[in-house]
Structures are given as structure tokens and as C-alpha cells.
Amino acid sequence: MSFVDSLLGRPLATSEERAEHIGVAAGIPIFGLDALTSAAYGPEAAMTLLIPLGLAGVHYIVPIITAILILLGIVFFSYRQTIAAYPSGGGSYTVASENLGDGPGLLAAAALMIDYILTAAVGVSAGVEALTSADSKLLPHTLLLCLIVLTVIVIVNLRGVKDTGAAFIAPTFLFVGTLLTLVGVGVFHVITSGGHPVPVLAPPPALPATVKFLGIWLLMKAFSSGCAAMTGVEAVSNGVMAFGEPRSKKAQATLTVIIGILAVLLFGIAYLSRAYHITAMEPDASHYQSVLSILTSAVFGRGWFYYVTMASVFTALALSANTAFADFPRLARAIAAHDYLPHVFLLRGRRLLFSHGVYALTGFTTVILILFDGQTDRLIPLYAIGAFLAFTLSQAGMVVHWKNAEGGYKKHWWHMFVNGFGALATGLTTIVVLIAKFVAGAWVTALLVPVLILIMLGVKRHYTRVKREMKDMTPLNLVNLEPPIVVIPMARWDRITEKAMRFGLLLSKEIKVVHIHSDNEGDEGLEGIWDDKVLTPIRQEGLQEPELVTIPSNFRFVITPLMDYILELEDRNPGRKVAVLLPEMVVRHWWENALHGQRVQLLKLLLLLKGNQRIVVVNIPWYL
Amino acid sequence: MSFVDSLLGRPLATSEERAEHIGVAAGIPIFGLDALTSAAYGPEAAMTLLIPLGLAGVHYIVPIITAILILLGIVFFSYRQTIAAYPSGGGSYTVASENLGDGPGLLAAAALMIDYILTAAVGVSAGVEALTSADSKLLPHTLLLCLIVLTVIVIVNLRGVKDTGAAFIAPTFLFVGTLLTLVGVGVFHVITSGGHPVPVLAPPPALPATVKFLGIWLLMKAFSSGCAAMTGVEAVSNGVMAFGEPRSKKAQATLTVIIGILAVLLFGIAYLSRAYHITAMEPDASHYQSVLSILTSAVFGRGWFYYVTMASVFTALALSANTAFADFPRLARAIAAHDYLPHVFLLRGRRLLFSHGVYALTGFTTVILILFDGQTDRLIPLYAIGAFLAFTLSQAGMVVHWKNAEGGYKKHWWHMFVNGFGALATGLTTIVVLIAKFVAGAWVTALLVPVLILIMLGVKRHYTRVKREMKDMTPLNLVNLEPPIVVIPMARWDRITEKAMRFGLLLSKEIKVVHIHSDNEGDEGLEGIWDDKVLTPIRQEGLQEPELVTIPSNFRFVITPLMDYILELEDRNPGRKVAVLLPEMVVRHWWENALHGQRVQLLKLLLLLKGNQRIVVVNIPWYL
């Protein structure tokens, strides 16, 4: 226990919940890392699609990022309102299911679950990829490195929300600090040089242009790819409950800081790329460098600052998976509370978090990492679709929320307008992303969403049936309290079967001792000792005599004739309970189990599977 | 069931045992394949060690094989006597333990078990190696091929002794037929050519000699290696029970035929090798051919007969593993009957054989094949040591047997002499083999034997203790038949807990309903409904009131406080039984298990592990 305690922290009492609540400073690494790190790959994703334009492409990046920033602004104001309206956690699932109904709620739930699982897998593998591209000797160990990073994140998360925030504060602030410095110094150079800065290290020349101008299709694709920069914005609204009071205010402040920094970074990177004439490189080029790497080299050269920046990007990317770990368990809990997922997701673990959600996410992420051998970078475009679907549903839900709120649309027209505009913008974006990325893999998401919804509906159906069958508000029924018929399988007369007989006599007057007699070598049956050992003492006490049932078994089977007898007995005595007493040896060492047949275990299992409400199994343990 | 029936045959009733008995013709493939196929590698094993002598080596092979044949003759006569004296199976284990005591018995048992496991693994891999050396495309699939051959042998064996004999008769007789033809035709050529036969295909030239004459060490090593040809001779004496009456006669006849053929083959191959000036090739030479391949080419050329002979050798080698499958289960049964191995080895399966022995041997063989990646040919020398140790102990035991037999050594002096001489000869050989092969791997056997003996002693100790504790020849004790204290864990009031309450009231008047109350969200406890639903109807019936025990759980644990309560209750009530009633949901589909906590299973396990004789678990199933 001591090892577990020091690894995961001592158990927290339910009353200690308040102490686990976090503030803005811890909220940024916990819920913001996913959003912030998208600054590292969002602009590059858009710029990669501009490569065919050659050097002319640099002129398009600022407008595209500006469009994305406008969308980001809309989403930001929408979620600010949502947080205020849902102080106990306003994730897309909650908002959509409460305002739009179960169907849209499940759609949001499925989209978000896929989004979070992919976020975790992609975050880990992107971080490791950055590491392996720095030292190609590590390349063969990609999968192992991924699993190590995952393990670290899981352990930190299992220590609870507060410890997670504390652990990730430093890398997050280093990442934000270096990138803000890069943008600040870069912009300063641009301004002082009159718009024509001299790069310290010249960026690689742009590839020759293969197209002349930006077509609408290419524009759509570049915009869609750039939208990857917006994933993770949902996180804060889902986790409002993690903040201390005043909850909504702190959550809103956290969201504001995150979006603000993200906007500065995105615009700064786009602006500097144009000023320094930086184009993206083909990802499979021999001397591939990321846009961030080229940009940092251009502004600072390859000094210590370059390496600190790159290291902070690697670390932040690897840890960005943490956002998924912070939110997935809360999402799963919300869904399970509506009976759409197994109820284990409702249980709070030793550190007060919904540990089973962490386990489930770890399992799914591990499976994906192993399936793709740690090469999940191709999945990056896929998860934007889930995020945008959730955005749209959440904001459409908010429109209905305001309409039904006290005062109606007259009082809340402005709120309705903001959320409605947000829903429209993100809805259109969802369609654009789906079309632009369908062949590249969005079809996987489009396929997984209905599958997940079907599973959740099946779970709900099961729980509904169980509740209906189990619910009993009538008082205890004491009619017909008849003792059961007791069945004791007996191979020989020894102390453990004697114990079973004694217990059987307590239970009922009607006892059947069943002996399976196979004409195997040296098996004499029980008749020889029955009168002497059993009947005589029972007659002396004046108790009712148990019946000895000997069943011959020509084929040396034991379980089958026993099962047949019990089922037939139950059939012949309708309304009576049958209690099967199974003596069970409990050995001192696990290996000793191999020295005793496992027939009792098998019989127990079969009685459970083939039995019915009227058959009860009683284990009589015998400690060796 | 139908598929199993057609694969493994219908179940056989115990009364059908006689029909499963075999005759001499079936006995040869079942018990003789291992011995007979050693003709294929025994002479070669000796000749490989003569390579340093160059062409001069051919002169030594006949004397060495003659020495081995003399030893074989001694062993043959010894085992003939053993079979007559032990008509119910006279394996080394039985003979040694009955006459020399438990210690030597266990030594023989351990040696033989290792021998059989290695026989199975080496047989399979030698057969596959012959196949892969014919077509090197198959080489990467060695392990897979080994496992396929093993599967076939296991399935055939699981069909029972009779079917196994029938299946293996054809390949055995083909092997014996082709090799006898080879020897016969070869000897005819030698005689008609006046001792200087002209090979159809000249054997590859002998390597240049590196030593001048045969030193004692080299002679010992060549002799030891050639002794591999004697493994498998034990098999018949172990399996006497498989034969029909007159059992001993049929077993003796089978042994005679097997040894007779083996002697002819061994001597024939040695004689022809000298006549045709055939030397062994280094096994890792580029165009490596086995001695048998060179010999057949020399006598017949590379026509159809060559290929038939080679194919029959491959098949017989692969199937030689079958001898282990015929004998290991009988050996394990004999050891288990003395409580030195788990009792499952005593059970006869659906086809009347000791199936668990087959399973165990299959398991060990698979592990060895996987560990060595199917390259077990280096293990060939190892298993001769086990076989010779068993020979020695068996015959030493027979000496004692005759001495103690009616009439004593005056009447049986000839039997004693034969067995005594056999014991001496094989004992010396054991020492020679152990020394000559110690570094090459016999040390593994020397290490495994004591480990196995320790395991068997541990098993015996366990069974002795259990028998002592369990044995109860006193009649049923009806004193102090007091009803148990019933404990019912209850999370909420529903139909399944109501069922548990009803059953509890049948068991005892003293009922404790335990409710673990964690101050988790929305948990109101049972107090609210307790009076209304439970106490009122019980008071109406005038029954004793159950006690509601509410235990707070600050850390949301459920199992721990429950276990603590039960153990404390048991502690406070010495002499009383505690019956814990555990309601258990039985779902319709396996996946539905994921939707219900597995707390009940965990609690059951813990009660079994931490509980004691006085705690009884009652499963109350509820079928959904």
C-alpha cells in the first residue's frame, strides 16, 4: 500500500473535495495545453496546403489565419456565456442533451469521446515524433517512448486535479513564454526594419509554384486544416466543476487567458511567416523542418534560445494529451449519469477523480498507439471534425436554452444572437471540414460516431430494463417462506462433507445427498458408510433422514449428471427453492490449486448459467 | 458437441475398456516408433565423432555399434523379465519404487518424465528439420510446422490407444520396410562383389584425418552418442496394460519384434557404412547429407526408392514423438497414484486414456519448441542420460524383486544375474554418457532431476496433510447445531435484496443488514425505507427484527469496511457461523457484465481468502 500511496498519493476523503479545487493558474495547464499547443501545428497545417503556390503562398496565410481567429473569437464569446449559464459543467453533451434532446446529446457525446481519445493519442505521438526527429537513433523505439509518455501522464493524472496542475505549470509557461518572446522579438524586428527584416538564418527557398492562384477548393482545405488550431477550446466549459468558487468567474478567466494567448500566437506566427517569406516544407522532405523551427532560426539563429524553444514545444505537445485526461472522465461521468455508459464511470477513485474514465481513456489510447505503431500524426486532421460537431451542437443548444430561460428571447436576444451566430459559423465549418477531409480520413469519424451512439443506446436499454425489473417499492413479502430443498454433492465421507451436512441440516429438513458413482477403479460408493456415519446419529436425534441419491456414470462424467439431477429436482418441485451446498477447499498457496480439481468452480459457474431464480449456491469453505 | 465427437471420437463407456486393448501389430507403432527411428540418427551420432579420423574412421564404426548392440541385448532380456514380473505395467518408476524405495523411485520418475518430454520435442523438430532441409523455403516456418505436427499427434492420441495404433501402422511399416530393403540389398551387393561394392552414387570424400588413432576419450564420446539409439526401449514395459490378454506375452512379443528390427538396422547400417567407405559429414557443411541419405544413394542411386526412403524417414521421425504421448500419461498416472503428482492425472478422459497427461505433455513440449524456436536437435544427446538412468534403476529394482520373490535367489539366480548384469552395464553407460555429454548439455538434465524431485515431494506433502486433515471416520456430529448469524450487504432496497432477506429469514433469526454509507452525491441511506418496507411486515408476522447496521465510509471504499465488519462480527461471536448472503446478478449476455460492478465477485474472493472455517458465502442469483 505504501508504494501505491507514494506513487498516486494517499486516498482523499470525500470531505476534502474543496481542497482539490483549482484556480486560474492551474487551470491553464490542465485545460489549456491542448488548445495552446495547436499554435504549434495549426498554422503549419494550413501553410502545408499553400506549398503549391510557391513563394506567393505567404500572402495568403495571414488572411486564412485571420478567418480562423474570427471563428475563434465567436466560439470564445459563446463558451463564455455557456460557462456562466452552466456553472456545474457545461460541456457540449450536457448543453445539447438538456436543450436539444437525447439524440443531439448522444451525437455530441460520441463526437467528443472520439475527439478526446484522438487528442490523447495524437498528442503523445506528436511529442514523441518531435523527439525522434531530433535524434533518429530513437526512431525504432517510437512505440515504447509513446507508452512511457502515456504512463507518466496517467500517473500524474491519477494523483488528482491539483497535483496535475502543479506538475504541468512549468512546461506550459515555458512553452507560452518562449513562443510569446519569439513573436514579440520577431514583430519588433519587422517594425524596426521597416517591414523587411533580415533573417539571422535564411529560411529554405520556397518550392517552385505549380498553381497560379488560390482556388476555392484549396482555400477550403487550407482553412479546414488550420482549424485544427481550434481544438481544445471546449475543454474549460466541460471542467467548470474543477474550479474553486467563484467557479464560473475562474473558468471564464481561464478561458479568456487561453484564447487570448492562442490568438496572439496564431496571428504572430502567420504575420512573421509572411514578413520572413517562410513557406512550409513537404513533411517527407529529406531535411524537413517545421515552420516553427524555420521561424525561430530566422529570428534568433541557432543559439540556446532556439533549442530551449524547440524543447518546450516538444514537451508541451507530449503533455497536451493531458487535456483529454482532464476532460474525458468528466464527460464519461456525465454520460453515465444518464445511463448511456457503464455506471463505473460514476465512481470517484481514491484521489476523488473519476478514475475509471482515466482507465478507459488509457486503454483506448494504448490500443490506438499500438495499432498505428505510434505513427498517429496522420490522425491530426480527423479530430477537428469531432470538435467542430461538438461546438455546433453546444451552441445550438445554448440558443434553445436562452429561448426557454426566464424572460425569453426578449431579455436574452443578445445572448441568443452570439450563440446562434457561433452555431452557424461552426456548423458551416463542420461541413467544410467534413467535405475537405472526408477522403483523408474524416470518414472514420463519420463511421465511428453512429457505432458509438448504437452502443450507448444498448447500454441505456439494459439499464432501463434492469431498473424496471429490480425496482421494488413494495414491502418485504413474508408469504410462503418455505425452507429450500438442500442438495449436497458428495464424493466421499470426510470432514468437509460432514461440515456441509451440518450446515444443510440447519437450512432444511429435506436433504438430498447426491453421489455420482462411476465404475472407475476402486470406487466403492457411499452406501457402505451411509447408515453408520450419517443415518444412525440423525435417527438418534430424531431428525428427518436425508436421502442418499446414487447416480451411476458410465462415461465417468461428474458435472453433467449432477446438473441434470439438480435441474430435474427443481422442475419437479415448482415454487420450492433448491440450495446447492458446494464444499470448497481454500488452499494456503496459489499453486496448491493445481492439486485439487476445479470441478466445484465449474459446477458453480454452470449452476449460475443454467440455473434460475430458485437455485441458490452455498459455498462451504474448508481452509487447509 | 458433434464437432468434438467427429474430431476426437465419441465418448467411450468405462465398460468398453476391453475393446480398446491392442495387439502386437498396433503395439509396434505405438510403443516402438521412438526406438526404431533411433536407427536413423544413432549410428550417425557415433560416426560424427569419428570424423577427425578421416577415412580410417569407417573401421571403428562396426565395433562401436556392436558394443551398443550387446548392451541392447542385455537390456532386452532384462525388460522381457520385467514385463513377465509386472503384468500391470512395469515401468522403471513402478519397479524402482516398489523394490528400492521412494527415493530411487522418484529419481526414475524424474528421469523418465524429462526423457519423454524431450523425446516428444526432439521427435517433432527432427522430423520438421528433415522436411525443411529438403525444401529450404520452409525454413522460416520451422516453429509453425513443429506446432502443426504436434497438433496432429495430439489429436490422434486423444482419440485413444486403438485409433493411434491404426493411424501410425502404415508409416511405421513403410519406414521399417524401406530400411530393411536398403540393408538387405546393400548386404547382397557387398557379398556378390566380394566385399568391394561399387556405389551407384559415390559418397562424398572423407575429410582429411586430424588425429591418428582413436583415443579412449573419443571412443567414449562416440559410444555415448551412439547410445542415443537405445532410447525408447523402456516404452513397452511401461504400457503393458494397453495390450489385450495374454497381456505379458503380447507385450514381450512386441518388444522382441522392435528390438530385433532395431538390431538388424543398426548393424546393417554400420556394416554397409564400412563396406561403402561412408563417413559422416559435419552437420553445418554446406551440402550436408545424413549418413542414411549417402548410404541410400550409394546402394540405389537417386531414383524413386531414394525419395520414398527419405520420405518414410522424415515421417517416422516426426511421428516418433508419439511414443512419449503413449507413455507419459501412464507414467504420470502411476506417479499420481502415489500422491507425488496432481490427482487429475488419475482421471480417464472421454476416450478412456489419461487425458490430463496428454495435455501436460503437450504443454511442456510446446513450451520447449517455442523456447528453442523449433531447433531442438541439440537436445538429442541430452535425453539418453534420462533413459539410461531409468534403465539402471529399473534393473537394480528387478534384482531386489527376484531376491524377495518366493523361492529367493536360489530359485531366481538366473533372473537375478540377467537383471544384475543389465543394471551394471547400463549403470556404467549412464556414468560414461554423463561424463562424455556433461558439458554438451547433460548438466541440464542433472539440474532438472532434483528440481522435479523436490516438486514431487512438495505435492506429496500437500496431499498427506490434506488427507490427514480431511479424513473423518467419525459419524456425523449433531451437537451444537446453532443457526448462523446472517449478514446481508445492502446498497438499496430492490427486488434482489428482498429475495436475499427472504432467504436470510429462512436461515436464522439473527440478521444483520449492512449498509455502507459514503457521503457521495445523492445517497440517502436505507433508514428512510427501513421501518416501512422491512420492519413493519416482520413485526406483523411476529418474527425477530433484523438489525440495520450503517457504516459511514469517508473514502468511498465499500469492500474494506464490509470485510472489517464481517471479520469483527465473527471475532465477537466465537463458535458461531457467519453466513454472508451475496446477491448476484446473472446477465443474459457476457458484455452486460461490464455494466455491473464486479464488487460481489471481489467480495466473494476476499471472504474466501481472508475468512475462515466459520464464514460461509451464500450466492443469491438474480436472473436479468
The number of domains of chain A is 2
Helix content of chain A: 55-70%
Q: Tell me the number of strands of chain A.
A: 5
* Radius of gyration based on Cα positions of chain A: 33 Å
Shape of chain A: elongated
- Supply the CATH superfamily name of the largest domain in chain A: Amino acid/polyamine transporter I
Distance between the termini of chain A: 27 Å
- Give the amount of beta strand of chain A, in percent: 5-15%
Count of helix runs of chain A = 20
Order of helices and strands of chain A: HHHHHHHHHHHHHHHHEHEHEHEHE
Q: Please give the largest β-sheet of chain A.
A: 5 strands, parallel
Assembly annotation = homodimer
Mean pLDDT of chain A: 84
What spatial order of strands do you see in the largest sheet of chain A?
3-2-1-4-5
Low-confidence stretches of chain A: none
Keywords (chains A, B): Membrane, Transmembrane, Transmembrane helix
Pfam families (chains A, B): AA_permease_2
GO molecular function (chains A, B): transmembrane transporter activity
Membrane topology (chains A, B): Multi-pass membrane protein
Descriptive notes:
2 copies of one chain form a homodimer. Chain A has 624 residues and is mainly α. Chain A has 2 domains: 20-464, Amino acid/polyamine transporter I; 485-623, Rossmann fold (3-Layer(aba) Sandwich), CATH 3.40.50. The first copy, chain A, is built from 20 helices and 5 strands. Chain A has helices spanning 2-8, 24-48, 58-85, 92-100, 102-134, 142-158, 161-192, 216-226, 235-238, 247-275, 291-300, 304-319, 321-337, 355-371, 380-404, 408-470, 495-507, 527-541, 559-572, 599-610, and strands spanning 485-489, 511-517, 547-552, 578-586, 615-623. In chain A, strands 3-2-1-4-5 form a 5-stranded parallel sheet, sandwiched between helices. In chain A, α18 links the parallel β2 (511-517) and β3 (547-552). In chain A, α3 (58-85) packs antiparallel against α10 and α15 packs across α16. Chain A is elongated. The interface between A and B is large, with 83 and 83 residues.
